[in-house]
């Protein structure tokens, strides 16, 4: 069995990362998981969080994603995320913007609870919570990101 | 017979026109390359999305609880046409061919007694459809501030469509845009996005994968994204098509202007020669008469 597999991080606008890796740790919606070469073929949705990529030399790189999904098979992991940033690039400003987006989504869901149903609102609330957790995890303050108004 | 001065002015003005069309052609060529690169860069995401969607749909096919975005509302009465065009003209038949396709589609639906609502993206669709379809406009997305089409734009448009669907405003949504085939060929295309039409072979893919959470949970999360991706792809194709069409149109215009300059110059030279000859004849016959 090969000891590395191909990892691709793809955003709708372009391909962000494409490297051979030894393992990938993913923040799945139902819980974190680690994919290594030879992993059973799986499609998993992601919550906002950190994706850790370990290359053949054992160096770990982290990426923050705002949800999306990953396609895992024995030889490759493809991560499709609407936004993905290397952890080093997540500054307070970038994070603020991500938080604002999540808050706005939550608010719209809240105001339209009638037509959308409780599940959608709960999902938006969970997303917001995950975003907050992500910020705290990488040492950024979720409360700094307030609405401009 | 126009005077020499008129001809000279005319030649000057056509030369100016040629300069402008030549410049527009070169700008379009540069923008086309960028638009094509953007379309190229967006392809991996769209392709993977399509594969996964195909697998998911196959896995949930026939299920009672399939999401409405996929299964539809069960009716086929109210249609939403989303017409994507550019903000600027001077791109040959680019905008009119999209609008023509959308209009014939709308007329066919109306003839069948269906209801039609129209969302326009870009100024040109709005202008061209206003006269006969103006009553059916429900929304317009202004793209004049957008320099470069981004995923955000697609998300905004898709969200608008999804909100309308959730509110129960329509049963079927169709996108109208121009598919970029080559610089000289752009094909106006209609693409149904709701209920989702999934293309491609799915059977082998679906059985291969485990889904976490279940197929349906993933499907209902991914369907809106898939629609956004399709809108995004259509916007990118449109952007490339627009520049391609403009480039071809301006290339033709430049060539026509060149031909016209040649013709006018010939006429000008002839008239000048005729004037000289006439003067000479006058002088000689005057001298002979003495």
Automatic annotation (TrEMBL), chain A:
Underlying gene: atpC
Topology term for the membrane: Peripheral membrane protein
GO CC, any one term: plasma membrane
Chief localisation class: membrane
SUPFAM superfamilies, alphabetized: Epsilon subunit of F1F0-ATP synthase N-terminal domain
NCBIfam families the record matches: ATP_synt_epsi (TIGR01216), PRK13443.1 (NF009978)
GO molecular function, one term: proton-transporting ATP synthase activity, rotational mechanism
Annotated family: Belongs to the ATPase epsilon chain family.
Domain of life: Bacteria
Record text on subunit structure and interactions: F-type ATPases have 2 components, CF(1) - the catalytic core - and CF(0) - the membrane proton channel. CF(1) has five subunits: alpha(3), beta(3), gamma(1), delta(1), epsilon(1). CF(0) has three main subunits: a, b and c.
Protein name from the UniProt record: ATP synthase epsilon chain
Keywords of the record: ATP synthesis, Cell membrane, CF(1), Hydrogen ion transport, Ion transport, Membrane, Transport
Residue span(s) of domain ATP synthase F1 complex delta/epsilon subunit N-terminal: 5-83
Record Pfam families: ATP-synt_DE_N
Cell compartment(s), UniProt: Cell membrane; Endomembrane system
From TrEMBL, chain B:
Keywords annotated in UniProt: ATP synthesis, Cell inner membrane, Cell membrane, CF(1), Hydrogen ion transport, Ion transport, Membrane, Transport
Gene Ontology MF terms in the entry: ATP binding; proton-transporting ATP synthase activity, rotational mechanism
Description of how the protein assembles with itself and partners: F-type ATPases have 2 components, CF(1) - the catalytic core - and CF(0) - the membrane proton channel. CF(1) has five subunits: alpha(3), beta(3), gamma(1), delta(1), epsilon(1). CF(0) has three main subunits: a, b and c.
Organism: Paracoccus solventivorans
Name this polypeptide is given: ATP synthase gamma chain
Job of this protein: Produces ATP from ADP in the presence of a proton gradient across the membrane. The gamma chain is believed to be important in regulating ATPase activity and the flow of protons through the CF(0) complex.
Subcellular location: Cell membrane; Membrane; Thylakoid
Topology class, membrane: Peripheral membrane protein
Listed HAMAP family: ATP_synth_gamma_bact
């Amino acid at each position: 069995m090969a000891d590395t597999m191909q990892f691709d991080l793809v955003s709708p606008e372009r391909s962000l990362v494409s490297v051979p890796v030894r393992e990938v740790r993913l923040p799945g919606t139902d819980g974190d998981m680690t994919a290594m070469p030879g992993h059973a073929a799986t499609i998993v949705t992601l919550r906002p969080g950190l994706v850790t990529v370990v290359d053949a030399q054992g160096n770990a790189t982290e990426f923050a994603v705002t949800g999306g999904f990953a396609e895992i098979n024995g030889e490759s992991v493809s991560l499709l995320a609407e936004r993905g940033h290397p952890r080093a690039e997540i500054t307070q400003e970038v994070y603020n913007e991500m938080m604002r987006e999540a808050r706005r989504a939550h608010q719209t869901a809240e105001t339209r609870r009638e037509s959308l149903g409780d599940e959608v609102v709960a999902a938006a609330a969970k997303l917001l919570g995950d975003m907050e957790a992500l910020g705290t995890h990488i040492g950024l303050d979720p409360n700094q990101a307030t609405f401009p108004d | 017979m126009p005077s020499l001065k008129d001809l000279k002015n005319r030649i000057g003005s056509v030369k100016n026109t040629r300069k402008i069309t030549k410049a527009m052609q070169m700008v379009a060529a540069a923008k086309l390359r960028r638009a094509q690169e953007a379309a190229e860069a967006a392809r991996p995401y769209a392709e993977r999305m399509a594969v996964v969607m195909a697998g998911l749909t196959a896995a949930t096919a026939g299920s009672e609880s399939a999401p409405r975005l996929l299964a539809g509302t069960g009716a086929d009465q109210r249609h939403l046409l989303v017409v994507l065009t550019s903000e600027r003209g001077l791109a040959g038949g680019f905008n009119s061919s999209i609008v023509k396709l959308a209009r014939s589609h709308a007329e066919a639906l109306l003839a069948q007694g269906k209801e039609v609502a129209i969302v326009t993206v870009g100024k040109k669709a709005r202008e061209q459809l206003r006269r006969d379809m103006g009553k059916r406009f429900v929304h317009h997305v202004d793209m004049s501030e957008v320099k470069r089409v981004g995923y955000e734009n697609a998300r905004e448009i898709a969200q608008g469509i999804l909100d309308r669907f959730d509110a129960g405003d329509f049963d079927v949504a169709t996108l109208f845009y121009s598919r970029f085939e080559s610089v000289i060929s752009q094909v106006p295309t209609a693409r149904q996005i709701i209920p989702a039409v999934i293309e491609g072979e799915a059977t082998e893919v679906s059985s291969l994968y485990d889904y976490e959470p279940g197929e349906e949970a993933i499907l209902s999360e991914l369907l809106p994204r898939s629609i956004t991706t399709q809108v995004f792809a259509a916007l990118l194709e449109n952007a490339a098509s627009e520049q391609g069409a403009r480039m071809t149109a301006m290339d033709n215009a430049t060539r026509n202007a060149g031909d016209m300059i040649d013709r006018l110059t010939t006429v000008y030279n002839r008239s000048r020669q005729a004037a000289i000859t006439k003067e000479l004849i006058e002088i000689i016959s005057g001298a002979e008469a003495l």
